[in-house]
Write a structure and sequence with these properties.
Blueprint lengths: L2 H7 L2 E12 L2 E12 L3 E5 L6 H7 L10 E9 L2 E2 L7 H7 E4 L10 H11 L6 H11 L3 H4 L12 H13 L5 E5 L7 H14 L4 E5 L3 H7 L2 E9 L6 E10 H6 L4 H7 L5
Parallel strand pairs: 2-10, 3-8, 3-9, 6-7, 7-8
Antiparallel strand pairs: 1-2, 1-4, 4-5, 9-10
Helix pairs in contact: 4-5, 4-7, 5-7, 7-8
Length: 268
């Protein structure tokens, strides 16, 4: 490995320290410490209700859109506190794109779905080039290039999800957050999305929430396992980060017995 490659591995896009998220009086997750590295795929796994999607939404301040949500602790993005009062969440979401569980194309043409973000950002020139480049990166150009002016709602589920990925990368983000992007797709479409993630990780840092442990093992470089435990004083279930390590280690030699129990199917 070259010195340049060693330096690249040490670059932290996110540094999370003592993160906790409350919804009203209920603490959804607490005591989260982890680092997300540049140009890697990081997977969040764990049972339902363990807070993995809540943590993901902290990375682009999507929790701001929930009135009762309150975020504590530190989330640094390239060393900048994302929750500093001087930070504009709109700018954050432009740099840190998100793809959701269910494909959500706009009720517009394929072309206008991709051009929407650049237009909002003030781009007027080179839209054709941006649309083609984004659809090509998402592995969709050859399938749709002859019907760009038709409705995106006419695409298959897998195509719609790749369209949403193309829409996200059209504004040239630094990070892609993916919240169970394959849960509504068939195995063939899922395979295409996984292949796409591997292809584009050299250009984007990717964080994916998935219930599919095999998917995490196939595509990710590092994996964080979360669980939900009863918090003694309150009796409420609270998400906790149990273990965070290289994916190979998590799946072959986990350090915590709770991780082993989950990945071997003994609970969850």
């Amino acid at each position: 490995m070259s010195m340049a490659e060693e330096e690249l591995e040490s670059v932290h896009v996110f540094e999370v320290e003592d993160l906790a998220v409350r919804y009203g009086e209920v603490t959804a997750i607490s005591e989260v410490d982890l680092e997300i590295c540049q140009q890697e795929i990081t997977a969040f796994i764990g049972p339902s209700g363990c807070g993995k999607s809540t943590v993901l939404r902290c990375f682009n301040r999507m929790n701001d859109l929930i009135d009762s949500a309150h975020v504590e602790g530190s989330v640094l993005y390239h060393g900048v506190d994302l929750y500093d009062s001087q930070v504009d969440p709109v700018v954050v979401r432009r740099r840190i794109g998100m793809v959701f569980q269910k494909p959500n194309p706009f009720p517009k043409s394929i072309y206008d779905n991709i051009a929407y973000g650049p237009r909002i950002a003030g781009t007027k020139d080179n839209l054709d080039e941006i649309v083609e480049r984004s659809l090509t990166r998402a592995g969709l150009w050859d399938e749709v290039k002859d019907r760009l002016r038709t409705s995106a709602l006419g695409l298959s589920g897998g195509q719609q999800q790749r369209l949403c990925i193309a829409r996200a990368i059209a504004v040239n983000p630094d990070v892609l957050l993916m919240d169970e992007p394959c849960s509504a797709l068939d195995p063939i479409a899922t395979g295409r999305i996984e292949e796409l993630m591997r292809e584009i990780k050299n250009d984007y840092t990717i964080v994916i929430v998935t219930h599919n442990m095999q998917q995490a093992a196939r595509v990710s470089d590092r994996t964080a396992f979360f669980t939900a435990e009863v918090h003694g004083p309150t009796g409420q279930r609270r998400g906790r980060l149990v273990e965070f390590d290289n994916t190979g280690t998590i799946f072959s030699n986990p350090a915590d017995e709770r991780t082993e129990a989950y990945i071997t199917g003994r609970f969850g």
